[in-house]
Amino acid sequence: MNRREGGDRRVLAARRRAKATSRMPLVESVAVVRDGRGDDDIVITSMGNAREWMAMGPLHPRDFVYVPSAMGHATSLGLGLALAQPNRRVIVLMGDGSLLMNLGSLVTIASLAPKNLVVVLYDNGVYEITGSQPTPGTSAARARGDSVDFAAIARASGWSSVQRYSALDDWQNNFAKVMKASGPTLVVLDVEATNRPGPRSPGKTAQRAPEFMAAIRSVANGV
Amino acid sequence: MFTGQQVVALFRELGITHVVSIPDSTIGRWDEALSNADGLQLIRVCREGEAWAVAGGLYLGGATPLVLIQCTGLFESGDALRNIVHDWHLPIFSMIGYRSYLNQDTLPGDTCLVFTEPILDAWKIPYKLITDANQIDVIRAHYRECLAKGTAGAALLAEGKA
């Protein structure tokens, strides 16, 4: 290793450490959405955030805990709901590992530009529910030591509103403003990785789907 | 097979509100008619797996979607189909292009002929094979039967080339 390479590596390592220390806790970041969502809003949760969402108390009738899921398809399910329910805000909570499995959905969503769709991306760099293995998008798994910039991908794909927060108080202070933005909106949250198991389905899907449909049949006030 | 106008007329008659699709060379000929049809929204997705989840969200939201893809996309999108149609019991109807069924000049030995129907059987999707332009009534009847039963279903559209 020459001196320059060693220097570059130390810089990259320092950047990684700095980034690692500027991540917000998952539970509190999920609670921001749970506390701030509107009564008419539809909230789709998936994977690790669904586990935390369910642990915080009873579900709202317009919560859709997307468990079981086809991994990565929460964005697509949310797109369909946003198009069918244009007077409701649809908030999708998903992880970076999931989004990597369906990155094209960012392009699909931008092409249709639903103003009422908000995707909150919990970026922890790992496949949390399988034991926190690094995703191919995280710095730990990449030769250059960088990580995928989901906010930049969304902007380049044509999303009209893209935000990124690493500090919990920034996310808390900006939540209301983010929700009022004309979408589609992507919010990237740098969150700490946890090492907890995957979520359990809160009930039988054959009952949950019609109950959810009944809960969104009423007229919404608009977003 | 069918013209774009015929397909649009059929979808309108059946009450379809959204067509979630990736084209092939047969389905793609309907693009202009689908794009311009009043009361019908064409949703272009990037990968077929997306189509089932978008259709699932539309259905949950009260719309009446239809998935329009080629059989190769059916192969790709199995887990998404399984989740939406079987985990969540959402009765999504699809029209699936059956590559090389009528003509294998372009792709001799195309394995789409080997796998398409067994895969539809494996995913427990009741389907009708459509080989002739006079069979549009078969699609209509199958759709209505699936609707009445509350199940997913498919029309498998024989195609001549890739």
What is the compact description of this entry?
Chain A has 223 residues and is of the alpha/beta class. Helix content of chain A is 43%, strand content 16%. Chain B is globular.
Give the uncertain stretches of chain A in residue-range form.
none
Q: What gross morphology of chain B would you assign?
A: globular
Classify the helix fraction of chain B into a percent range. 40-55%
Instruction: Output the radius of gyration of chain A.
Output: 18 Å
Task: Name the strands of the widest sheet of chain B in spatial order.
Answer: 2-1-3-4-6-5
Termini separation of chain B: 14 Å
SSE series of chain A: HHEHEHEHHEEEHEHEH
> Helix/strand/pairing class of chain B, anyone?
alpha/beta
DSSP summary, beta strand count of chain B:
6
Strand content of chain A: 15-25%
SSE order of chain B: HEHEHEHHEHEHE
Rounded mean pLDDT score of chain B: 96
Low-confidence stretches of chain B: none
Strand order in the sheet with the most strands of chain A:
2-1-3-4-8-7
Number of helices of chain A: 9
User: Judging from the principal axes of the Cα atoms, what is the shape of chain A?
Assistant: globular
Biggest interface: A-B, 30 and 31 residues
Mean pLDDT of chain A, rounded to whole units? 91
End-to-end CA span of chain A: 57 Å
Structure classification of chain A: alpha/beta
